[in-house]
Specification:
Blueprint (H helix, E strand, L loop, with lengths): L12 H17 L1 H9 L3 H7 L1 H14 L16 E8 L4 E8 L1 H12 E4 L3 H17 L8 H14 L8 E6 L3 H15 L4 E5 H8 L4 H14 L4 E5 L8 H17 L3 E6 L3 H7 L4 H14 E6 L8
Parallel strand pairs: 3-5, 4-7, 4-8, 5-6, 6-7
Antiparallel strand pairs: 1-2
Helix pairs in contact: 1-4, 6-8, 7-8, 9-10, 11-13
């Protein structure tokens, strides 16, 4: 069996010396690393002990030059991270640490504004960016399209006022477009330093209705945190366990609390506006009452595009 050949680059003493001198020039040109080495007891010793770390640092810094944001990061396995070096005075060497870059720190700060979410925050980030790309690429503004609906919802970001009554939208869609727009809205408000919560009706509202005490307590605790946010997104409304008690003891108090405090609420559902009203109403009286409450906090809007977010 033929042995595999190793591609080993053997440098001559002269080539090694040239490479070291080149690295020294690069290090001296980097004020941060040069200052670290100067702060050590022996510049040359620490440099020689940290040759590999310094090479990795210089290479890492090159990859970050001209970066256009987290989504465009080309680092495989270390996306959004940059190498930071620090002095280890015991070993007379520089230690390597990975820290978030400025773009990544911005995303983490954005995530801090999403104070509660039933949805993974990275999923929100990625879907929001896909939605933004669609908006940038789409030229037509056909009524009830993804672009049209998203634009109406995003306009609320600029109109939001903590002291006034804020009315959101109930987005109806028979595919995932309504959810995608909801994530885009959450992302936009979080970027504008508003606290945001995302409640999946199938998860949190079901927990609040659970007969299992621990689940019920967890759901109630989560809902209490979620409803305190400046902006609440409720997705999959109509897919939770529904009963008169669930409507009167969980959903109605939640929506009324949001309305009384002027907090803005967005609802996403696969059901259309009339189906939502019918789902939570048992007779004409309850239909009228529920409609008045819904109309007070949201305006209904439908998304009819079929080409996006169907997977």
């Amino acid at each position: 069996m033929e042995k595999s050949k190793l591609n080993v680059q053997v440098l001559s003493p002269r080539e090694q010396e040239e490479r070291i001198e080149k690295l020294k020039r690069q290090v001296r040109a980097d004020k941060e690393i040069d200052a670290l080495l100067c702060a050590s007891s022996n510049y040359e010793l620490v440099f020689n002990n940290s040759y590999i770390s310094l090479l990795n640092y210089i290479e890492d810094k090159k990859m970050c030059q001209g970066c256009q944001g987290f989504s465009h990061c080309s680092k495989i396995g270390q996306k959004g991270l940059r190498i930071k070096l620090s002095n280890n005075y015991y070993s007379n060497s520089l230690e390597t640490h990975y820290v978030p870059c400025n773009f990544y720190r911005g995303i983490l700060k954005l995530f801090d504004n999403i104070i509660y979410s039933d949805i993974d925050k990275w999923r929100i980030y990625h879907h929001a960016n896909e939605g933004r790309d669609i908006i940038k690429a789409k030229l037509s503004k056909v009524k009830d399209s993804f672009l049209y609906t998203a634009s109406l919802c995003l306009a609320k970001v600029k109109q939001y006022n903590k002291d006034d009554m804020n009315k959101g939208y109930m987005i109806s869609s028979d595919n995932h477009n309504g959810e995608a727009i909801s994530y885009l809205v959450a992302y936009a408000f979080a970027r504008n330093d508003k606290t945001v919560s995302i409640v999946d009706a199938k998860i949190t509202l079901n927990q609040c209705s659970s007969l299992i005490e621990d689940l019920k307590k967890e759901g109630e605790k989560n809902l209490a945190l979620a409803k305190s946010a400046d902006v609440m997104i409720i997705t999959n409304l109509g897919f939770e366990y529904k009963s008169q008690a669930a409507r009167d003891l969980i959903l109605t108090p939640l929506l009324m609390d949001r309305a009384m405090r002027g907090k803005i609420t967005f609802i996403s559902s696969y059901l259309d506006y009339n189906d939502v009203l019918a789902t939570y109403s048992k007779d004409r009286v309850s239909l009228k009452i529920f409609k008045q409450m819904i109309d007070k906090i949201v305006d209904p809007i439908a998304v009819k595009d079929l080409e996006y977010f169907n997977d």
